[in-house]
Amino acid sequence: MKTGPEAVRSVGIIGAGVMGRGIAEVSARAGLRVNLLDQDPAVAASAVQAIKSVAPCASEVSVALNEEDISTADLIIEAVPEDLAIKTEILSRLNSHLGHRTIVASNTSSLSIAQLGAALKDPGRFCGLHFCLPVAQRPLVEVVRGGATDSTTMDRALDFTVAVGMSPIIVPDSPGFLLNRLLVSYMNEALELVLDGATVESLDRVARDFGMPIGPLALFDEIGMDVAMAVGQSLLRAFPERIVPSELLVAMYKSGRRGRKSCGGFYLSREDAVHGRLDPVVVELIHERRRNCERPADSAVMRRLFLPMLLEATRTLQESLVTSPETIDTALRDGLGMTRSYAGLFGWADRIGAATIVEWLRPLHSLSKRFEPTQRLLDAAQHDSLIAGRRAA
After folding, report:
1. What is the pTM of this model?
2. Among 192, 186, 251, 179, which residue's Cα sits nearest to residue 216?
3. Is residue 202's pLDDT more than 60?
């Protein structure tokens, strides 16, 4: 961690919603000075009071009233809704206020860092810092290098994440970065399975057996339908042959069910999610769109849930988005809060065997190209080697 003049000692955060408040809290707990700016000062004030109530020994946390109030911060993090126009407009307003040492980051889940950085006069001082929900419990931070991001900005951003107790990984500027590129394939498949007759109980059972802390529909509620829609659209534009636009997700969004932040998603409460009790209105939305009433076995649910994620993971390795399967397994663990039963995505795959997985994929090819085996998988099957290129634990 840097301790000299380059160290980040003060943070200005734009957006006092769930993400902004979470980032502010971990920053304050680490002893950094935090200024929280929101278009509604009352929201920022409420967030500051909430942080002080759970972290009374934290450093100074205060409400900023305008961009000038945060202009001298060492790091400014934008954490507003996942909308390119909104984020770009906010970043452009910073240009006349930035201190000469200030670096800027976006907490975007999937938007292009290059596009966002273009709003700044000096995009070299801009990068992505993608935190995960809930911030205090999910140590993963994707530190995203844009095409113009300079090395000093990256070094300072990395040191900041370590200083606030997080576990960073460096990823290039690409659709969905790493975590959401993998996660969208899993979450979209869950919605397709629901419409193909899978029960909530089956989805939750299979997800938890794999090591997921909650079922996929509960995960939608935690993330929010608006964020899921925005990330899904980014990936659909990039990979239209593999991403299936979910009519159920669109219906949920249009019905106003945005997840826990709007007091209603697939479930009305966390207790309902634990027990798999869907909101009756959601049950009707599913019933109106269900394509098949024949319930698939848990084994079929498992294959459809996790094979698209595995295939996408092998694609990220083929593209050198990341350099090792260990990085992918760690990102899923730290970004999702996996349980003790989690053996790693590649640990799970290597125990099954590449040849078996290729056979599992054959009857699924007709669904879409998302089930086509990758070259890495085919090579492993042909040479009787591990998909991960290492021995499973």
Report:
1. 0.94
2. 186
3. yes
